[in-house]
Amino acid sequence: MTKPLKRVEDIQLREKMLVNDVIMQMGGAGGFMGRRLAEAVDIMEDIVSDEQCLTFLSFPAAPVATGLRGVLRDLVRRKLVDVIVTASGTLDHDLARSYASYYHGDFNLDDVVLHRRGYHRLGNILVPRESYGPLLERKLQPFLEQLYSKGIRQISSSELCERLGRFVDNQSSILYWATRNQVPVFVPGLTDGAVGSQLWLFSQRHHDFKIDILMDEQKLSDLVFSAKKSGAIIIGDGITKHHTLWWNQFRGGLDRAVYITTGSEYDGSLTGAHVREAVSWGKVRVSAKYATIWGDATALLPFMVAALLERLRSD
Predict the structure, then answer these.
(1) Active-site pick, 139, 229, 241, 283
(2) pLDDT by residue (tens digit) across 83-141?
(3) Which of 52, 63, 17, 24 is nearest to 40 (CA)?
């Protein structure tokens, strides 16, 4: 302990406090994830305020089935991120919710009964069957036929997402704003979802229609190698988290990183891996500012982004 010790300060709540006021006090409170949350907001502010920093936003599909979709959409709408890496299910839920509704449910509902009544359960969210697979087939097959009629025989996930953003024409959509603000959306596991199944189904009638994943990799390569700095807000786990880290290692690692995870590192999975593990691989720089927060992003991210927006408005 070479630095002077910092005293733990009590949080003083007042009427009509801004979210950022509470977050700032949490930083002085010294309490566990509360202090880490405040540190993460500081890093997020550094990331989005630095014009030289290429900002990645990485997230899995499940949060898009919830109201957190609105927070993710606002980060894109406000041009606070430059690149999205996400899962195929994100396209499913973003498109489905642009045309139909999902509903509140409960973790303890009877799944056999739900199946009989035509509902999928995603945690405590209910997805009407007709608002998911059948709806996406009705929307996507004509869309793909239109692309094909224009001579498109090969397409990358990022180009597909850009065209879907134009097609959906709904301001509630993440893809809508990504297209309009020229934020590329990469889906490395494109076939793992309903949109992927529709692509496969289309290819059964048009055998020369292909998805070119290497086009995406070239585009990611161009982005990371031209970036003077890079930072990432990484929500959740799996291929979306890894693909963001993997490409940034080729430029020496991320300069700043924030993880939000519910996983444990003790099973050796990427899901629960701390940012410091990525340092050992060169995916995050040794000199980087970073924070790992344990918790559900649907509970944490709205407060983090609200505090961030308050800071940006006051600058």
Answers:
(1) 283
(2) 999 999 999 999 999 999 999 999 999 999 999 999 999 999 999 999 999 999 999 99
(3) 24
Indicate the pTM of the whole model. Answer: 0.96
Paired tokens of 22: 């509470």
Please indicate whether residue 139 is annotated as part of the active site.
no
Element (H, E) at 46: helix 32-49
Placement of tokens 């996983």 in the chain: 263
Longest CA span, the chain: 70
Tokens of 161: 């997402």
Q: Which of 167, 157, 183 is nearest to 72 (CA)?
A: 183
Nearest to 52 by CA among 226, 275, 169: 226
Query: Which residues sit opposite 258 in a β-bridge?
Result: 233, 291
Q: 2 is written with which tokens?
A: 């070479």
Angle formed at CA 110 by CA 108 and CA 112, multiple of 5 degrees: 150
- Residue matched to tokens 């930072």: 231
First-to-final CA distance of the chain: 34
Task: Tell me which DSSP letter residue 249 carries.
Answer: G
Sheet strands side by side (includes 119-122): 103-104, 125-128, 119-122
